[in-house]
Specification:
Keywords: Glycosidase, Hydrolase, Signal. The protein is mostly beta strands. The chain has eight domains: 343 residues, Glycosyl hydrolase domain, family 43 (Tachylectin-2, Chain A, 5 Propeller); 80 residues, Immunoglobulin-like, CATH 2.60.40.1080; 188 residues, Jelly Rolls; 115 residues, Trefoil (Trefoil (Acidic Fibroblast Growth Factor, subunit A)); 341 residues, Alpha-Beta Barrel (TIM Barrel), CATH 3.20.20; 133 residues, Jelly Rolls; 103 residues, Sandwich (Immunoglobulin-like), CATH 2.60.40; 177 residues, Jelly Rolls, CATH 2.60.120.560. Helices cover 8% and strands 39% of the residues. It has 14 helices and 122 strands. Strands 31, 33, 34, 37, 42, 43, 44 and 46 form an eight-stranded antiparallel β-sheet that branches. Strands 32, 35, 36, 38, 39, 40, 41 and 45 form an eight-stranded mixed β-sheet that branches. Strands 61-75-78-79-80-81-82-83 form an eight-stranded parallel β-sheet. Strand 120 and strand 121 form a beta hairpin. Helix 6 crosses helix 7, helix 6 crosses helix 8 and helix 11 packs parallel to helix 12. The longest helix is centred in the middle third of the chain and has 16 residues. The termini are far apart. The N terminus is likely disordered.
Length: 1798
């Protein structure tokens, strides 16, 4: 075959993952190239392409401990399908600079000098890195080496190449531009606005661009300025990366073929251009020509299945013909195991065929393949793997053990690999024992031993292996083990299943079968399911199991788990993990300590089953496997004591699919539980959280007692290793035995001797002699069989003493009537796929790549049947101007489409009805089939037909579907009914059972989500954002002729028919249909009893956006101002105004209440201040009664915050919107934030706040803060938590969300229930109260160690001294004179640190390039002075001096020269990133100048000095041990005592109420108590919820125990005067119908009693007697329905009283207001109805109407009442406080009803 003639320096592609990288300093010029080795290697200028005889392949090996280094392989001659890993599989290059991680190596040869250059990504994921951070504040450098021969390598150089606003530099490659005589170097970078600080970057607001620069030789200072090469936004956080180039010279110039990873779908695309430097997406009209997308997708891969996605392409030519080869890296997070080889006969075609059968190097990941000469191949092998050149034959194993009938393949290697004939002949010396075929497949025949020999056919020698054939023996069980052989159909009761998914496991055939579920226990990813565990006492154990499984995808694994909790465990199992060098299948032993995971791996090639033993001795765990005849140890590891459970797991982690695991048995030898002698006060609890009480004997109860039943233990001797104790209460009363119960006795009684014995799982049993406490009826703990002992949890009790004084007579502060509201933003798919009940996703086929790079017009749609479908946009066929895309179906009569909706699919409920509709047009009349089917299409849940009339005009067609069967993963299909062309648009499936509002009736809102919002009782609804409000362009859809897809939210585009609302890009990376528009928002608010609070843009940037802003005089400016004024008119205007008329035309003639409007949201720039006055003035001129709310930016402090507040004061605005998301400690320390705000200045709207998490600890911090909001509610008039909603599968905002949901379930977070508690118990006045008590535990002096760091800056430090401020003792000192001592005493975390000339130099470009003294986080220094010298060498910023450091995310640092050398800032980190607490503006550091830095830590006060001058003083606010506020509810007359105890101790509190308020004994208590780490989840939705109870200990002075980690509300009612008891007399009767259906008979006259008489619908009579004020009825058994009233009824005597209204008829249509009689009652229709039986449900379309003789409404469950309505119920008169239905009067003290006065 002829060889192809190509350029002498073929190019290869590299691909980069999303990796974290660090920044490095400018590298020195590359050192001179070392001398070449002795072998004479030709240079490139001496080599013709025809001389290439092999390939070299540098690569990295993954995210393991040694993976991010450079490895090398060579091909076998010119065959790219066979490779040899060099250097014994060890790396040839490692990084000592930057992040010290290397990825994506790219190798290129200089065509003129012959020098090789290797460049690589500076990124390390191993050890805690993550791809998100790496794209925000990663390295902007690439690492460079040079070599003359691929053997001798220069020193490493670090070249900072990406611009300063880049978050990373990934996958650098280069191409030689012969005409320019230079290399074009290209890479991927995420770019951010210059005014967004690095710590504020979020990759979801940016995306990867390909950039390029040029250099002649990769030396420092030789690179040109970076330029954009590819700029294509492919969706939220997604762009284009990993480009690689192949050049084909031609007579008219070269043709360049480029492969690039498209992050829209994580596949590779191929393009072509005749200009290497042509841009794409950078300027109008630019771009390369697309050849093909999704290269390789669908091709078979070597690990099973087909290729789906990948990255890091490397492309190279064949050395024997005209083919080209391509490798694409498909790592585990893309569903693969590494590189996959493809080939093509036509590079220009884009058609690539996979070669899954090739022999690649060990674990290759993103690298380069480059042709080399035979001489170069030989030189490389001589240097790195000389045995490959030695003559001989070797086998991959020398011994082989098989059972009769088994087969195993031996691999023979003949060397030298350059030999002409490397084939072998196989033979067996005893074929009666084992045979071998020509391919080395050995088959065992019978027991015995045989020798298998491979003989080189080229005369290079022989090699042999011994085969032993023997029958396998089963593994012996541990002696004295408890064995579960999984017989029967129920699990042994010892097992518990954590996070059970019942459908994924089963018992049968003597085995436990698990289908592994998505999820993991790895570090923070605690998403596992079906963990099977048994409790074990602390101590040594042996656990053993036998399992069968075939793991085929990375991170499928199953085995034994030794469990403390999900952050501390040891697991050992059969796992597929290609990240390990000897993988992919083997035994992975993983150890996680404090959420840090480490693993070892023992290969078990092709294993489909293992018997595994996990043994613990002390802290050491040993893992062994049974190898047919003996145990083989495969791993040891250590874990501190604390294992309380052992069991089995099966995981499908990462993107792995589920696999089946069959456990044959589980055997356990467990330790005998030791006795426990508690130290200090404690109580016991049930493992289910029930409380211990003593009610004549110990018992477990659900309701928390007012005071804990607690004890202290005293040792009572003991023998044979036992430790019995006696127990007594804290005041000395003994626990005694009384019959078969333990109870607290009297002083002097003899205490019972008990043993508290560890029974595993963190539980204990109480043993009394030879008996134990067992659980009896109603939770009673009685003596019984120890085998049935109750498992109890020991709970330490810590009590602190507090006082709370409430002064009822002191002057009170009026509270805002509208304090708490709801903030709604379309984030996390809150609208479409959320509260908007539409089930069809992308119903109008308008999805677009501008919304999200992965979106197309067919997103969520797939074709069914034959024919063809396509999304088109022909103006002549548009549905309307605002809805331009539609689906064209070229049907063969069976063609249709299926929609997958959101989450798992379409969620439908058995028996429910749904409205199906579609806009359609066709020239062919036909019946469309619309149906709901299962995901596999096998089950039809509902079906219907729609008749399209054949007019070829757009028309909407509708039908109703009633579903059979419940499903959450169905599909909605529309199938054509005839051949020909059919066009579809606005395909809809809408549940009929949506939320019904009390004012506007049936809504488009998903019922369960709307009900959760309704239960909050919000006073306002802020919408539509948030960043959705003010990020985007300023044209309209029609104004841009349908081209602008990134428009700022414009309210006029969201009203009117839904098919005429133009869809739009959403800031959060998806599409918004505007199905919920401004009218729906306002109606929603109205139905909630809230007022709408819209927020609009004033044309300035917010949320970090860099979209061009709008200014006065711009084309759209005046329109935006007028649109804002029109918005208010739309809401409030009379029907004779322009926009009030529009509102009326849309069905809502009544104006809405609109007291406020918000202008702007978190603006970054002063354009806000420029534009605000025009909007404000226009609003005030037209609507002076509307309060304008300005804003203060995105933070709670800082320069922009101060700047905007100053502006707002100067403008005289009434209210300012503040937003902040902070750590819990901030909220605990800043509850007095608003105490000092000027009451005469603008008031505050706290529009967005949350504590960055959804645990109970987060909610506790927010509750504490809310006590401060209420105390200051005269100033803070409005407040709303944010965000409200999050669809669990589409979360963009991960910090915290109030409510989560999927397509058929919803659940509130702990934060939600806390908000609901406060929002429903506000009050009207703040009652003065004062708390006294101990200081909070965390209020001591600031303490911790020190450290040094920089941010993208190079600096020198010297003479670090820490001195005790009191004694003058030197606590720490470092002069950096001894490099060896520094290496021992300092631990660099990031950056490049070295001792030079007596200074400690940081020369890297990393963000937070930190170095910490050894054990620096472990010291507890307080009250000290830190002094040091510092000098800036180069870079963007200055110094970071850390102190009071208790951990990597627990510290203060002084950021000198931060924010691009413009500020001096004190920052604090408390569990997360550092946040600003104090700052000086306009502070810059001089490069090259020495500074003296001093930090004085005095208690909780920090003083910062620079060159001897005080710069900043800051005192950290103290947390409180208890937070409280008391409010008065005017409606109920109650005082609401709200107490938050965030600490770990019970707050035993003496509460006193002074003044003219006598406290009633009955107190309504609502409390929330949980561990701070507890969180509500989909699996456990109510782990943290409020609990209501009544306590009878109320008085003007009482003691109350507020539990640890609790929020408690006490409603103190005022004691009532003593009532006079009266007995009513029975009434007399007549049987006349009489006027108004009343008997007309005289009623008794009894003092203090009121009688009400009504005629029943059946003709009978009802009389109700109720007491007047000051009286109470005697409590006599009679026909009494309620102890507060007496009722007598008399049936019809036979006389017929004709009903006033016609009888209900099922076939009649009724509309709102129609009345009917039905079964003796009168009902009124609420809305249109037919066939809906009255009285069937209190929420149906009918309301039962009843009245007293006086015309007063009688309460009925189905009747709707609104604020002010008066009703009679059980003899009492009530007034509605707000809209209500089916809420019984007096059923709750804070419900919708209040007793009417008088």
């Amino acid at each position: 075959m002829s060889r192809a003639v190509r350029r002498s320096a073929p190019l290869a592609l590299t691909l980069a993952l999303a990796l974290p990288a660090t920044l490095a300093p400018p590298a020195a010029a590359l050192p001179s190239v070392p001398t070449a080795p002795s072998a004479v290697v030709p240079t490139a200028v001496e080599v013709d392409d025809a001389d290439y005889d092999a390939y070299v392949f540098p690569y990295f090996a993954g995210e393991g401990e040694d993976g991010e280094k450079i490895y090398l392989a060579v091909s076998e001659s010119d065959d790219p399908t066979t490779w040899h890993t060099l250097n014994d599989g060890e790396p040839i290059l490692e990084s000592t600079l930057g992040t010290e991680g290397l990825r994506d190596p790219f190798l290129i040869r200089h065509p003129e000098t012959g020098v090789y250059y290797l460049i690589a990504t500076d990124l390390q994921i191993y050890g805690g890195g993550d791809f998100g951070t790496a794209q925000e504040t990663g390295s902007r450098s690439m690492m460079v080496w040079s070599s003359p021969d691929l053997v001798s390598w220069s020193e490493q150089s670090e070249i900072e190449l990406a611009p300063e606003n880049a978050g990373n530099l990934w996958a650098p490659e280069a191409h030689w531009d012969a005409e320019a005589g230079e290399f074009v170097v290209y890479w991927a970078s995420a770019l951010y606005p210059d005014d967004v600080a690095p710590e504020d970057r979020d990759i979801n607001t940016s995306y990867q661009r390909m950039m390029y620069a040029t250099t002649p030789d990769f030396s420092e200072g030789s690179f040109s300025e970076p330029q954009l090469w590819i700029d294509m936004d492919r969706g939220e956080g997604r762009g284009m990366i990993d480009s690689t180039i192949a050049e084909i010279p031609g007579d008219d110039g070269s043709t360049y073929y480029r492969l690039t990873k498209d992050e829209a779908d994580y596949t590779v695309r191929q393009e072509v251009s005749d200009d290497l430097r042509r841009t794409q997406g950078v300027t109008d009209g630019d771009g390369w020509d697309l050849i093909a997308e999704q290269i390789g997708v669908g091709q078979p891969n070597p690990w099973g299945g087909t290729f789906t996605s990948g990255e890091g392409p490397t492309m190279f030519p064949s050395l024997t013909d005209d083919r080209w080869y391509l490798m694409i890296d498909q790592p585990s997070y893309h569903g693969g195991e590494g590189y996959l080889l493809f080939e093509t006969d036509d590079l220009a075609s884009g058609d690539w065929t996979s070669r899954p059968d090739v022999e690649l190097p060990s674990n290759p990941r993103h690298g380069t393949v480059l042709p080399i000469t035979a001489a170069e191949q030989t030189a490389v092998i001589e240097a790195y793997q000389p045995e490959l050149l030695a003559e001989g034959v070797s086998l991959d194993r020398s011994e082989l053990s098989l059972e009769p009938g088994d087969s195993r393949t031996l691999q023979a290697t003949v060397t030298p690999i350059t030999a002409v004939d490397r084939s072998v002949t196989w033979s067996s010396d005893d074929e009666s024992v084992a045979t071998v075929d020509a391919d080395g497949v050995v088959t065992a025949v019978a027991e015995g031993s045989a020798t298998i020999t491979a003989t080189s056919n080229g005369g290079h020698g022989t090699a042999s292996a011994t085969v032993t054939v023997a029958a396998a023996t089963p593994a012996p069980l541990p002696e004295d083990a408890w064995v579960d052989e999984f017989e029967g159909d129920a699990l042994d009761p010892r097992w518990t299943v954590e996070r059970e998914e019942a459908s994924a496991w089963s018992l049968g055939g003597g085995a436990l079968t698990l289908q592994s579920q998505p999820g993991d226990t790895y570090q923070g990813d605690n998403s596992y399911e079906n963990m099977f565990l048994v409790d074990v006492p602390a101590g040594d154990f042996v656990a053993q199991t036998s399992l069968e499984a075939t793991p085929t995808a990375d991170f499928q694994g199953a085995g034994i788990m030794a469990w403390q909790d999900h952050d501390n465990y040891v697991r050992a199992g059969l796992t597929h993990a290609s990240v390990f060098a000897n993988g992919p299948v083997g035994i992975e032993t993983g150890t996680e300590t404090s959420a840090a995971y480490a693993a070892t791996f023992a290969a078990r090639e092709d294993s489909t089953g293992e018997t595994i033993r996990l043994e613990r001795t002390g802290d050491e765990f040993t893992v062994s496997v049974w190898d047919d005849v003996e145990w083989t140890q495969v791993a040891t590891t250590t874990l501190a004591p604390g294992t309380t459970q052992i069991g089995l797991y099966a995981l499908a982690a990462g993107s792995a699919p589920s696999h089946e695991v069959v456990f044959d048995y589980f055997a356990l030898v467990e330790p005998e539980g030791a006795d426990i002698v508690p130290d200090g006060e404690f109580t016991l609890a049930g493992p289910d959280g029930r409380y211990l009480v003593d009610d004549g004997g110990l018992a477990l109860v659900d309701e928390r007692p007012a005071a804990a039943t607690s004890f202290e233990a005293t040792a009572a001797g003991g023998e044979d290793g036992t430790s019995p104790v006696t127990l007594a209460t804290p005041d000395g009363l003994p626990l005694v035995l009384d019959g078969d119960r333990l109870t607290v006795g009297a002083e002097g009684d003899e205490a019972a001797v008990v043993r508290l014995s560890d029974v595993g799982g963190g539980t204990l049993a109480v043993l009394v002699g030879d008996q134990a406490l067992v659980e009896g009826a109603e939770g009673a703990l009685v003596l019984g069989d120890p085998a049935e002992a109750a498992r109890l949890v020991l709970v330490p009790v810590s009590v602190t003493e507090h006082q709370l004084a409430i002064d009822a007579d002191a002057e009170r502060t009026d509270m805002s009537d509208d304090l708490y509201g709801a903030f709604y933003e379309d984030i996390n798919y809150a609208a479409d796929g959320g509260i908007y009940a539409e089930l069809v996703r992308n119903r109008s086929f308008e999805f677009n790549g501008a919304d999200n790079g992965s979106f197309t017009g067919l997103t969520a749609w797939e074709q069914v049947g034959g024919g063809d479908i396509a999304v088109e946009s022909d103006e002549a066929e548009w549905l309307n101007e605002s809805n331009r895309f539609y689906l064209t179906v070229d049907s063969d009569g069976t063609t249709g489409v299926a929609n997958s909706s959101y989450n798992e699919g379409v969620a439908v409920e058995d028996g429910a009805s749904y409205d199906a509709s579609v806009w359609a047009r066709s020239a062919v009349a036909q019946d469309l089939t619309v149906q709901v089917v299962s995901a596999d299409g096998e089950t039809v849940h509902a079906t219907g037909t729609i008749a399209v009339d054949g007019s070829d005009e757009w028309k909407q067609y509708e039908t109703e579907l009633t579903v059979s069967g419940t499903a959450n993963d169905a599909r909605f299909q529309v199938v054509s009914g005839a051949e020909g062309t059919l066009r579809l648009d606005m395909v809809s499936l809408f549940p009929q059972d949506t939320w019904v509002g009390p004012v506007n009736g049936k809504s488009p809102l998903r019922k369960d989500l709307a009900e959760m919002v309704e239960e909050l009782n919000p006073k306002f609804l802020r919408f539509p954002g948030g960043c959705v409000t003010n990020v985007g362009t300023f044209d309209t859809y029609l104004g841009s002729d349908g081209q602008d897809r990134t428009r700022t939210y414009q309210w006029k585009e969201t009203i009117g028919p839904v098919e005429e609302r133009p869809t739009n890009w959403n800031f959060w990376g998806y599409n918004q249909s505007y199905g919920i528009g401004y009218l729906e928002y306002m109606e929603w608010a109205e139905d909630l009893g809230a007022f709408p609070l819209p927020v609009v843009s004033v044309g300035a940037n917010g949320c970090g956006s860099s979209i061009p802003e709008m200014h006065p005089g711009d084309e759209n400016f005046d329109r935006w101002v007028q649109d804002t004024v029109d918005l208010i008119e739309f809401a409030k205007g009379d029907v004779d105004t322009e926009w009030g008329a529009v509102r009326a035309e849309l069905g809502h003639p009544e104006p809405f209440e609109l007291p406020y409007i918000g202008l702007g949201n978190e603006e970054n720039t002063t354009t806000f201040e420029e534009n605000f006055p025009a909007f404000r003035d226009a609003i005030e001129a037209e609507w002076p009664d509307v309060t304008i709310i300005s804003n203060s930016g995105p933070d709670d402090t800082g320069a922009r915050f101060d700047e905007l507040w100053e502006f707002n004061r100067a403008q005289g605005v009434d209210m300012v919107d503040e937003h902040y998301y902070n750590d819990p400690s901030w909220f605990l320390q800043n509850t007095e934030r608003y105490d000092s705000y000027d009451r005469e200045g603008p008031h505050v709207f706290l529009g967005e706040y949350a504590s960055r998490g959804n645990t109970w600890g987060n909610a506790l911090a927010e509750a504490a803060y809310m006590t401060g909001l209420e105390r200051n509610s005269d100033l803070v008039e409005l407040a709303s938590y944010a965000p409200m909603f999050a669809n669990e599968d589409y979360v963009q905002w991960t910090a915290a969300n109030m409510m989560y949901f999927d397509n058929d379930e919803s659940w509130g977070t702990a934060n939600y229930y806390n908000q609901r508690l406060f929002m429903n118990n506000v009050g009207d006045e703040v009652v003065p109260s004062e708390h006294t008590g101990p200081a909070a535990p965390g209020n001591g002096p600031l303490d911790g160690g020190v450290f040094l760091s920089t941010w993208a800056t190079q600096a020198a430090y010297d003479d670090v001294v820490v001195t005790d401020s009191s004694s003058g003792d030197v606590l720490f000192s470092e002069s950096f004179d001894d490099a060896a001592a520094v290496a021992e005493n300092w631990a660099p975390v990031a950056g490049s640190w070295a001792v030079q000339d007596g200074e400690y130099i940081q020369s890297g470009t990393a963000n937070d390039a930190r170095s910490v003294p050894t054990d620096g986080y472990d010291v507890d220094w307080s009250n000290y002075t830190l002094e040091l010298d510092a000098r800036k060498i180069s870079g963007n910023e200055g110094f970071l001096v850390g102190f009071a450091a208790g951990g990597p995310n627990d510290y203060y640092w002084w950021n000198l020269g931060g924010w691009n050398n413009t500020r001096s800032v004190l920052q604090r980190a408390d569990g997360g990133s550092a946040g600003e607490v104090a700052a000086l503006e306009g502070q810059a550091l001089e490069t090259g100048r020495d500074y003296q830095v001093k930090v004085v830590v005095d208690g909780r006060t920090i003083e910062l000095y620079l060159d001897g001058e005080l710069q900043l003083t800051y005192t950290e606010p103290a947390e409180k041990s208890l937070y409280q506020v008391v409010t008065h509810d005017e409606d109920t007359g109650e005082m609401i005592v709200k107490v938050v105890n965030p600490g770990a101790s019970t707050a035993r509190t003496d509460v006193s109420v002074t003044g003219a308020f006598e406290v009633a004994s009955d107190v309504a208590v609502t409390e929330m108590v949980a561990d701070p780490s507890a969180a509500n989840t989909k699996a456990d939705k109510t782990q943290v919820v409020p609990v209501d109870r009544t306590w009878d200990g109320g008085a003007n002075a009482f003691a109350y125990d507020f539990p640890a980690h609790s929020v408690t509300f006490l409603r103190l009612a005022e004691a009532e005067d003593e009532l006079v008891e009266v007995t009513p007399e029975r009434p007399t009767w007549t049987d006349e119908c009489g006027p108004a259906n009343v008997t007309g008979a005289p009623l008794p006259e009894v003092e203090g009693v009121e009688y009400v008489e009504t005629r029943k619908n059946d003709g009978g009579v009802k009389v109700v007697a109720t007491p007047l004020e000051g009286y109470v009825l005697s409590d006599k058994p009679s026909s009494t329905k309620n102890p507060e009233s007496w009722t007598w009824t008399k049936g019809d005597s036979g006389e017929e009283c004709p009903p006033e209204y016609p009888a209900w008829d099922a076939s009649t249509v009724y509309t709102a207001g129609d009345r009917v009689s039905f079964e003796g009652s009168v009902f009124e229709a609420t809305w249109w109805t037919r066939g809906d039986e009255p009285g069937a449900s209190p929420y149906s379309s009918w309301q039962e109407i009843a009245e007293t003789a006086e015309g007063v409404a009688v309460w009925t469950p189905s009747r709707i009442f609104t604020a002010g309505d008066v009703v009679v119920h059980d003899g009492e008169t009530y007034t509605a406080k707000w809209w209500t239905r089916n809420q019984v009067p007096a059923s709750s003290p804070w419900g919708p009803w209040e007793v009417s006065a008088g």
